[in-house]
Specification:
single chain, 51 residues, alpha+beta, 2 helices, 37% helix
Length: 51
């Protein structure tokens, strides 16, 4: 996730946090994903605009 962190910071944002959505991944692995899609770890990215 470092490339994403670098890109968000390069865009001028601060306090960038990246959290894996492990529960969503677990549920997708149990119940399956939409036809034609692959099971993929998803992330929540939050940041603040610098003042």
């Amino acid at each position: 996730m470092d490339p994403w962190l670098d890109r968000v910071e390069a865009a001028g944002f601060v306090d960038v946090q990246i959290e894996p959505l492990d529960d969503l991944y677990r549920l997708d692995s149990i119940h399956g994903v939409a036809p034609g899609h692959e099971l993929t770890q998803q992330y929540l990215i939050t940041a603040r605009r610098s003042s």
